[in-house]
C-alpha cells in the first residue's frame, strides 16, 4: 500500500498532466519497482496517449472525468493490483498479449524456456510441439509466430484461459496453433509430438510469497501445485513419454530448487541427455531431456509404460 493513496485528491480541479503523472509516480514508490513507468502507463490508459505524447503535452490540463478516472486507476495500482491486469495487456518476447485475471501474467524468466526451444529444435521442419498449461498463450503464441513451419498445440484446464490464448493467436493471425481444454496429457490423448514444453504451477501451497497482493491477484491454479509445488512437474514428467515421438524433447520450467528432483524424475521416465539450464539471472530454471529410448515413446498414455504401440 502507498502512504498516500489519494495523491490526486488535493490537486486543483483541472491539474496539468505532468503534475498528475509526477504525483502518481511518487504515490507508487512503495508499491512498484518502476513507479514512473506505471504512472505513465496508467496516464496513457486514461488519456489514450503514448508516453511520448504524455511528455510532449505535459502542460495540458486534464478534464474532470479523466482526472477521476486516473484517481481510480491509481487506487487500484496502489492497492497492489498488477499493472498488466489493469492495462489488460502484457509484453512477452516481442509480442503484446491480452491478459485477464483468468491467466498468469507472463514472466520474463519464461522467455528462457522459449529461447531454448527456439534454439534446440530444427527451425524449418514441420514439428509438432505441445505447450501444456498455456495460460495467456505466451509460450505457444511466441513459438508459433517465430517458427511458422511448426504446428503448436496449446492446452489448459481452464476454458477461460484458452479463450484468452485464442484471442492472442488471433491478434497475430496465427494459423499454426490448435487449442485443447483438459487436464495435462489427457488434453492431447492420441496425439504425438516432437516436443512438449510447459511452465506448470510449481509454487508450494504454504509459500509465504502467495500473500503478496500481486501474486494473490493471479489465479491460484496457475501458481500452486500439491506436494510442495512438485505434483504437476512430476506428473508431466511421468506421462510425457506416452505423447512423444522417439527422440522427442521435454522441456519444463521450474522453481529454483526443483532442478535435481526433476532430473531424477526425467531419468526414471526414460529421458536421456538431461540438463538443467539457467535463466538470464543465472538461476536454474528449465530442465530438459530427450526421449531416445524407443521402448518408452508412444506408450499407452495411462496404462503400461514399457511397450511401444
Ligand atoms: C504457471 S501458469 C503458465 C501460463 C503460461 N504458460 C505462461 O508461461 O505464462 C500454469 C498454467 O497451467 C494451467 N493448469 C493448471 N493445472 C492444470 C492441469 N491440471 N492441466 C492443464 N493445465 C493446468 C493453469 O490454468 C495455468 O494457465
Give a brief rundown of this model:
With 309 residues, the chain is an alpha/beta fold.
Characteristic terms for this protein:
Rossmann fold; 37% helix; Helicase, Ruva Protein, domain 3; 9 strands; 13 helices; 309 residues; 18% strand; two-stranded antiparallel ribbon; disordered N terminus; binds S-adenosylmethionine; disordered C terminus; 2 domains; seven-stranded mixed beta sheet; alpha/beta; elongated
Describe this structure in words.
The chain is α/β, with parallel strands linked by helices. It folds into two domains: 17-80, Helicase, Ruva Protein, domain 3; 103-291, Vaccinia Virus protein VP39 (Rossmann fold, 3-Layer(aba) Sandwich), CATH 3.40.50.150. It contains 13 helices and nine strands. The chain has helices at 17-27, 35-47, 51-56, 64-78, 83-87, 110-120, 138-146, 159-171, 213-216, 220-223, 226-229, 231-239, 259-268, and strands spanning 89-92, 95-98, 128-132, 151-156, 177-181, 193-198, 244-253, 272-278, 284-291. A seven-stranded mixed sheet has the order 5-4-3-6-7-9-8, with helices on both faces. It has a two-stranded antiparallel ribbon with strand order 1-2. Helix 8 links the parallel strand 4 and strand 5. The termini are far apart.
